[in-house]
């Protein structure tokens, strides 16, 4: 399969790129910019030189996404899966009165508009793929049922991402394209922190199993975890 992964330079995105390579897939590895700490990704490129293409791709910048799409189109005639993993968590633990609305805007720009911009531009390439899947990496923080009165900008942007995923599923279902919003678990990454119980590599395995149709979401739920278990929207 040919798989586009955003935020592929570290964290879950990098774990997904590594797992996809190990399974023999072609990876279009979207990275925000040359400043991104991409040591792990460089190593992956050395190990799997035929399988990894690094694409400069800042999901919050439509021109960057447009250019990345042109670069991708020059390399592949289609893509089979898009994993929107790039995201930011700003203003952790801020209460409502402390909110910085520039951070709220940045969060929506990256976590919601980012996947929307990526899908807008990459949809024609995705239509040229086979057994296509779109996985929008969301979070249980975006669950209305689990609202906890914190991380406002992050939680609200992920709730909106879930709605975008529902809309996209409706639009793409007639073409047989699978769409999920997916909570990867609380995992040890820069965002999740060292105390997180989960391993990004394990979440990546589950996500790849879903994309490869080795497992499927229970009851075809829209919002699921990496094992395909339904989550409350
Ligand atoms: P990290 O903070 O470890 O990594 C975030 C990644 O997103 C980095 O590669 C970063 O690139 C990239 N990124 C941020 N902004 C942009 C942008 N504008 N354009 C392109 N790339 C960008 O996060 P995780 O790996 O932990 O998170 C991956 C996904 O999983 C996210 O969607 C997150 O919300 C979700 N998630 C994570 C959980 C956890 O416990 N870790 C729990 C629930 C959900 P750069 O290096 O350039 O900053």
UniProtKB/TrEMBL annotation:
Gene3D superfamilies: NAD(P)-binding Rossmann-like Domain
CDD domains named among the record's database cross-references: carb_red_sniffer_like_SDR_c
GO molecular function: oxidoreductase activity
A Gene Ontology term for the protein's cellular component: cytoplasm
Top-level taxonomic group: Bacteria
Pfam families with a match to the protein in the record: adh_short
Keyword presence, Cytoplasm: no
Family recorded in the similarity comment: Belongs to the short-chain dehydrogenases/reductases (SDR) family.
Name used for this protein in its record: SDR family oxidoreductase
Source organism per UniProt: Paenibacillus arenilitoris
């Amino acid at each position: 399969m040919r798989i586009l992964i955003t935020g592929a330079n570290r964290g879950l995105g990098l774990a997904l790129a590594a797992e996809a390579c190990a399974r023999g897939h072609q990876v279009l590895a979207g990275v925000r910019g040359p400043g991104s700490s991409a040591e792990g990704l460089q190593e992956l490129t050395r190990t799997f030189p035929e399988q990894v293409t690094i694409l400069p791709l800042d999901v919050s910048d439509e021109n960057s996404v447009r250019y990345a799409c042109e670069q991708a189109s020059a390399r592949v005639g289609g893509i089979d899966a898009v994993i929107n993993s790039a995201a930011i968590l700003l203003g952790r633990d801020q209460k409502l009165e402390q909110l910085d609305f520039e951070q709220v805007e940045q969060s929506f720009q990256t976590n919601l508009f980012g996947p929307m911009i990526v899908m807008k531009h990459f949809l024609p390439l995705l239509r040229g793929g086979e057994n296509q899947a779109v996985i929008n990496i969301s979070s249980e923080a975006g669950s209305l049922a689990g609202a906890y009165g914190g991380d406002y900008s992050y939680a609200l942007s992920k709730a909106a991402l879930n709605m975008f995923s529902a809309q996209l599923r409706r639009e793409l279902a007639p073409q047989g394209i699978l769409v999920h919003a997916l909570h990867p678990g609380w995992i040890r990454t820069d965002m999740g922190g060292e105390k997180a119980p989960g391993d990004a590599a394990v979440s990546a395995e589950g996500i790849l199993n879903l994309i490869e149709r080795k497992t499927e979401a229970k009851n075809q739920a829209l919002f699921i975890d990496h094992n395909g278990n339904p989550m409350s929207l």
